[in-house]
Amino acid sequence: MNKKFEDIIAEKGRLVYTNVGDSMYPIIQQRDLLVIEAVSKPLKTGDVPLYKRDSGQYVLHRIVGVKNGKYMMKGDNRTFVEKGITDRHIIGVLTAVIRNGKEYPVETVQEYTARIAGDLIYLVTCAVNEQAPDKGRIKNMDLAEVYRLSMEHMLTAAAAFALEKTIPLPHAFDQAKKKAIRKLALFEVERAAVTRELEKAGIWYMPLKGILLKDYYPKRAMREMSDNDILADSSRMKDIRVIMERLGFTCDSYGKSNHDVYSKPPTLEFEIHSSLYTKEIVPQFADYYKNFEKKASRKGYALYPSDEDFYIYILSHTYKHCVYAGSGLRSLLDVYVFLRSHPGLDREYLAEELQKLRLSGFEEKIRSLSHKVFTGEALDRNEQNELDEFILSGCNGTVDNFEYNQTAKWLGNDDSKASKLRYFKNRVFLSGEDLEKSYPFVAKHKALYPFLFVYRPVKAAIIRPKAIFEEYKKIKRFKKKEKP
Question: Has residue 85 got a pLDDT over 50?
Answer without folding.
Answer: yes
